[in-house]
């Protein structure tokens, strides 16, 4: 699959066009060989093509930004279900990276007013770039904000008004073994989450509880070993109800959801 996608990239054609192609000129063959060498050296496919498919979008990616993963598409599916029937929901994506979640929500819910928060100065350049491309394609513009999702002053003007907070935060426990594509090419800030992987999640729960309106929805992606730990952390705040965990398509625990407590 990777070889086909790289050959198509070297030729500048869609993958399906390979089916009817029976020869490759010398220049394209040389480009293909160079790409194969890099891929064999464990450079991620998406860094070589410069693109990552995610739901209905194709995002620009490269060094300095986390490559969006297919598992996260289900978190977006869940998020869209929470927004169904709300004309102009207020949405915050904490840790936006390429903008995969924020821009998909804006694309698939045309009325959503989405803010994407990103702390990494390199990654946010990709967030801004992809947001500009989507705005040019006439999606409702997403607000991109440089900030720390654990900062008590973040987005103070939205306190108690947000319909949905969604996040795919860094959650890999420090020192865990990850594939070379990940270790060498995903940005450290996108991966490592402290001794149990949940340092950033603890801070994001405080921010989410402050931002969400009563009844507002929270969705957080996590590692497959954190299917009990993250729901327990969410419950322990005392700020959320309806805490549930959801599997990915491979059946592994993948994201936790909850609703902001409604007080009488
Ligand atoms: C796992 S990546 C997810 C990126 C994107 N949302 C996705 O699903 O592909 C986590 C992102 O959170 C950002 N991040 C990490 N810590 C953060 C913090 N404290 N505040 C804001 N963003 C943070 C990282 O730079 C990275 O872009």
From TrEMBL:
**What name appears for this protein in its UniProt entry?**
Release factor glutamine methyltransferase
Family classification: Belongs to the protein N5-glutamine methyltransferase family. PrmC subfamily.
Residues that bind substrate, according to the entry?
A: 168-171
Q: What residues bind S-adenosyl-L-methionine, as annotated?
A: 95-99, 118, 168
**What HAMAP family does the database record attribute to this sequence?**
RF_methyltr_PrmC (MF_02126)
BP GO terms, sorted: methylation
Positions of the Release factor glutamine methyltransferase N-terminal domain: 2-50
| Gene Ontology molecular function, alphabetical | nucleic acid binding; peptide chain release factor N(5)-glutamine methyltransferase activity
Region feature Disordered, mapped onto this chain: 244-264
| Amino acid composition bias (Low complexity), ranges on this chain | 252-264
Alphabetized InterPro entries for the sequence? DNA_methylase_N6_adenine_CS, HemK-like, N5-glutamine_MTase, PrmC_N, RF_methyltr_PrmC, SAM-dependent_MTases_sf, Small_mtfrase_dom
The reaction(s) catalysed by this protein are:
L-glutaminyl-[peptide chain release factor] + S-adenosyl-L-methionine = N(5)-methyl-L-glutaminyl-[peptide chain release factor] + S-adenosyl-L-homocysteine + H(+)
Point out the coiled-coil segments of this chain: none
- Keyword ATP-binding among UniProt keywords: no
């Amino acid at each position: 699959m990777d070889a086909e996608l790289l050959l198509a990239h070297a030729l500048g054609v869609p993958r399906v066009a390979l089916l009817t192609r029976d020869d490759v000129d010398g220049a394209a063959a040389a480009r293909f060989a160079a790409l194969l060498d890099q891929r064999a050296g464990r450079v991620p496919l998406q860094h070589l093509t410069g693109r990552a498919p995610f739901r209905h979008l194709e995002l620009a990616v490269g060094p300095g930004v986390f490559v969006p993963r297919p598992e996260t598409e289900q978190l977006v599916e869940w998020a869209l279900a929470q927004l169904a029937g709300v004309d102009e929901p207020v949405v915050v994506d904490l840790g936006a990276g390429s903008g995969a979640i924020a821009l998909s929500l804006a694309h698939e819910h045309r009325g959503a007013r989405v803010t994407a928060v990103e702390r990494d100065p390199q990654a946010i350049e990709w967030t801004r770039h992809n947001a500009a491309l989507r705005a040019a394609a006439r999606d409702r513009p997403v607000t991109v904000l440089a900030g720390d999702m654990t900062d008590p002053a973040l987005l103070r003007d939205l306190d108690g008004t947000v319909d949905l907070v969604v996040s795919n935060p860094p959650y890999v426990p420090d020192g865990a073994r990850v594939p070379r594509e990940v270790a060498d090419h995903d940005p450290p800030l996108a991966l490592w989450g402290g001794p149990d992987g949940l340092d950033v999640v603890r801070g994001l729960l405080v921010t989410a509880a402050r931002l969400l309106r009563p009844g507002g929805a929270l969705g957080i992606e996590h590692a497959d070993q954190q299917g009990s730990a993250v729901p327990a952390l969410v419950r322990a705040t005392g700020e959320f109800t309806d805490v549930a965990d959801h599997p990915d398509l491979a059946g592994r625990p993948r994201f936790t959801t909850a609703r902001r407590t409604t007080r009488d």
